[in-house]
Amino acid sequence: MAVIGWQNEGDCWMVAGWAFRQVIEDLRSQSSPDSEMISELERAKDLKYLFIDSVNAELAKRLANAIRETASGIQSGKIRSGLLDKPYGATSMAEYRNSMQELLAVVSRSSGRVGQ
What we know:
Blueprint: E1 2-6, E2 11-15, H1 17-30, H2 35-47, E3 49-51, H3 57-76, H4 90-109, H5 111-114
Parallel strand pairs: 1-3
Antiparallel strand pairs: 1-2
Helix pairs in contact: 1-2, 1-3, 3-4
């Protein structure tokens, strides 16, 4: 299991490791020019958690916005997830897309913490 969320509030998206790694990969592919964000995403991948409120305010804002944009894009089909290039079936892709709503809810509930 792995989490993305808010350490100080205990509001988190908890998922299987493969889904977490895929979100990190999808976020990374959408954030290519932002070396600070990529570094934080790589760290999160190793630690199996990403607490948005554990980084500086400016990076937290960029992370929250990137999560919102990427998750909503994957959910709507506007962003192609790297999961499609892996040997998972249609059921896994559907589960992944559906879990984006939960991730969006966690990030959106807390959007006032870092601004938009």
